[in-house]
TrEMBL record:
Binding site for substrate: D10, S11, Y42, G43, N74, T75, T185, H186
Lineage, opening ranks: Bacteria, Pseudomonadati, Aquificota, Aquificia, Desulfurobacteriales
Main function: Provides the (R)-glutamate required for cell wall biosynthesis.
EC code: 5.1.1.3
HAMAP family: Glu_racemase
Origin: domain of life: Bacteria
GO BP field: cell wall organization; peptidoglycan biosynthetic process; regulation of cell shape
Enzyme category, top tier: isomerase
Family: Belongs to the aspartate/glutamate racemases family.
Known catalytic reactions: L-glutamate = D-glutamate
InterPro entries documented for this protein: Asp/Glu/hydantoin_racemase (IPR015942), Asp/Glu_race (IPR001920), Asp/Glu_racemase_AS_1 (IPR018187), Asp/Glu_racemase_AS_2 (IPR033134), Glu_race (IPR004391)
Active site: C73, C184
Protein name: Glutamate racemase
Gene: murI
Length: 263
């Protein structure tokens, strides 16, 4: 069992930030990533569709004999996590609770902002998770539906991205938040823009490292030696995905296109 891979999926390129964190913390583990690039974004889809996509993605990873699945998509984690846990026998880890716990740990004032896709914010998943850790925390949320398309387009440090970020974040900054949860695994890719808009008084919470720590705690059988293999699959292989993926992973990578079985 130790040699079996850890599976990771996201709607697109954003979940590679989680894959990279796993690779750095658990370098001996074999990893397999699936980016559902043919159906990105998930954040504008209905809960029913998000759940269906999440089940299909997890079944795909199951076919590679994974020992665990990390749902590196906040939208899927918000709507499908408990269903996935009931459907599959291996552990399934989401990204919402680790990020919420880290935000509560880091905030000084208890005033926490959360940005995410429309579906993630509508679900209230982060608010529930944060308040379950600290009932006295004040949570201010904002849906940012344009961020994922801009990031998938590769506009990571563009004046248009900065202007849109300013429009989205100004209401949260007026609430005097001191911590901002990046409630979508795409968002760390524009961390520079977000930091510029928020300033030094707001700490940005990227849940990737917290998720990797959680995986390390619950991993059923660790691979203790050697360098793990990394395999990256997508449902639609594009030059844009390859370019951003190379930037995130910091190395030349091979990307395979696969079909998601619909049962």
């Amino acid at each position: 069992m130790p040699d079996r891979p850890i599976g990771v999926f996201d709607s697109g390129v954003g979940g590679l930030t989680v894959l990279k964190a796993l690779k750095e913390l658990l370098p001996s583990e074999n990893l397999i990533y699936f980016g559902d690039t043919a159906r990105v974004p998930y954040g504008t889809k209905s809960p029913r569709t998000i759940i269906r996509y999440s089940l299909e993605n997890t079944k795909l990873l199951e076919s590679f004999n994974v020992k665990m699945v990390v749902v590196a998509c906040n939208t899927s984690s918000s709507y499908a996590l408990e269903i996935l846990r009931s459907e599959f026998r291996f552990p399934v880890i989401g990204v919402v609770r680790p990020g919420a716990k880290l935000a509560v740990h880091r905030t000084r004032s208890g005033r926490i902002g959360v940005i995410g896709t429309e579906a993630t914010i509508r679900s209230g998943a982060y608010r529930k998770a944060i308040v379950s850790v600290n009932p006295f925390a004040e949570v201010f949320e904002k849906a940012c539906p344009l961020f994922v398309p801009l990031i998938e387009e590769g506009w990571l440090d563009d004046p248009i991205t900065e202007e849109i970020a300013r429009r989205y974040l100004t209401p949260l900054l007026k609430e005097k938040i001191d911590t901002l949860v990046l409630g979508c695994t795409h968002y760390p890719l524009i961390k520079g823009v977000l930091k510029k808009v928020c300033g030094d008084g707001v700490e940005l919470i990227d849940s990737a490292e917290a998720v990797a720590q959680e995986v390390s705690k619950v991993l059923p059988a660790k691979r203790e030696s050697g360098v793990g293999a990394v395999r990256i699959l997508v449902s639609d292989k594009t030059e844009r995905f390859e370019r951003i993926a190379r930037m995130i992973m910091g190395e030349k990578i091979s990307i395979e296109e696969v079909s998601v079985d619909k049962e």
